[in-house]
Amino acid sequence: MNHTTTLALTAAALAALLPLSCAAQAAMPAAPAAGPTAAHAVLQPAAPGVGAGEVTFEAMGDGVMVHVVVAGLAPGSKHGFHVHDKGVCTAPDFTSAGGHFNPSNHPHGGPEAERHAGDMPNLVADDKGSVDLRVMLHGTELGGAMGVIGHAVVLHAGEDDYKTQPTGNSGARLACGVITP
Ligand SMILES: [Cu+2]
């Protein structure tokens, strides 16, 4: 959350430096503040090709529609998949992404339960080892302090049990991608 705060402060600092002409424009009737309507992440696998993919997020109704496309998994395998707190995928084991993104301080849970804002159902690979899943995350946001942008999606080696706190016990991290607007 620290980087979000820093960005907000930077924006405020820039606004204070705007020339007068811009200040005059700002006095005109303002459109409602529009947040981002879409976001995107490229899943970079730790082992070449294993869990490579792409995730798109689209603002819809009271939440976000997520589209996940992944390849290179074992046919029929199940994989925990979550938004993690830090938008950093630099460590080889992706521990740099931290724990689950959890701005509302909820317990970890499955699709029907009280859950973290970035908890998603397990990805289930088809007989070719691919995933193409659309899932609606009600109550999840794209931008702002509660939004997923600036955080990271992480694909795990094992199945999320939807119970173990706070992780779901889905094992090592196969792939990681930073969520950008
Ligand atoms: Cu995870």
Shape category? globular
Stretches where pLDDT is under 50 for at least 5 consecutive residues are 1-26
Strand order of the largest sheet: 5-4-7-8-1-2-3-6
Q: For the residues shown, what is the average pLDDT?
A: 86
Q: Tell how many strands the DSSP assignment holds.
A: 8
What is the CATH architecture annotation?
Sandwich
Radius of gyration: 18 Å
Domain count: the total is 1
Fraction of residues in helices? 10-25%
Structural class: mainly beta
N→C terminal distance = 17 Å
The CATH topology label is Immunoglobulin-like
Ligand roster: copper (II) ion
Query: Strand count, sense and closure of the main sheet?
Result: 8 strands, antiparallel
H/E element order: HHEEEEEEEE
- Return the CATH class: Mainly Beta
Q: How many helices does DSSP assign? A: 2
Strand content: 25-35%
- The CATH superfamily is Superoxide dismutase, copper/zinc binding domain
